[in-house]
Amino acid sequence: MKVLLFGGFLGAGKTSSILSAAKFLVENNPTAQASNPETPSLVIIENEVGETGIDDKILKAEGLMVRELFSGCICCTLTSELTVTLNELYEAYDPQWVIVEATGMAYPHRIAETIHTYGKGVESLKNIIVADAERWEELTEIVPGLVEGQIAKADLIFLNKIDCMQPETLSEIEKNLHHLNPSAQIYCVSAFRGINSEIWSEAVLGNE
Ligand SMILES: Nc1nc2c(ncn2[C@@H]2O[C@H](COP(=O)(O)OP(=O)(O)O)[C@@H](O)[C@H]2O)c(=O)[nH]1
Ligand SMILES: [Mg+2]
């Protein structure tokens, strides 16, 4: 199982990005479902009720399953529940991909540490932080510790909502992100308009 862990503040575009990632992974995985349509090749675990819903019905036919863990925050009390869920999924289906949407308040790198320590069958894990370009300035004033802390430990950063930004403002934010995390690859995206398959291919299939 390969795990993609999406974090970032509420409204940043995690669910919108996840839907795009799911579509890419399902379309680029023709063999997995063919043998057994009952076995999902991709499972999405949701830990946040947001504006954008994951429409299970649309993607189910294509080998996707959605699990919801809404009873708490997976960064603290529910990290163990997430690990249990991952281990159950591994034993029941061993899906090729698991996508986890963390709540906006979580520090996903802490969740990643728990999964690394206690998760079974996890071949790889990428911590993808979605940054809200439109609210970057505001959020770094209101909750600097949280949004900057999430960015600092990301493996990949999606600077989202570029469709409603001026290029100069975007490059300022990008510099800021790079300063906070010099090693993470930064992708400037619009989940609203669609994230292209070249980006997904490099971001999630790269370095394998
Ligand atoms: N303009 C714009 N809006 C976006 C973009 N991505 C997401 N949104 C909107 O932002 C809101 C929150 O998106 P959602 O994916 O639910 O964010 P989440 O809370 O991080 O899961 C929704 O109204 C989306 O339609 C984008 O690239 N551009
Ligand atoms: Mg969401």
UniProtKB/TrEMBL annotation:
<dbReference type="InterPro" id="IPR027417">
    <property type="entry name" value="P-loop_NTPase"/>
</dbReference>
<dbReference type="GO" id="GO:0005737">
    <property type="term" value="C:cytoplasm"/>
</dbReference>
<feature type="domain" description="CobW/HypB/UreG nucleotide-binding">
    <location>
        <begin position="3"/>
        <end position="186"/>
    </location>
</feature>
<dbReference type="Pfam" id="PF02492">
    <property type="entry name" value="cobW"/>
</dbReference>
<dbReference type="InterPro" id="IPR051316">
    <property type="entry name" value="Zinc-reg_GTPase_activator"/>
</dbReference>
<dbReference type="InterPro" id="IPR003495">
    <property type="entry name" value="CobW/HypB/UreG_nucleotide-bd"/>
</dbReference>
<protein>
    <submittedName>
        <fullName>Putative GTPase, G3E family</fullName>
    </submittedName>
</protein>
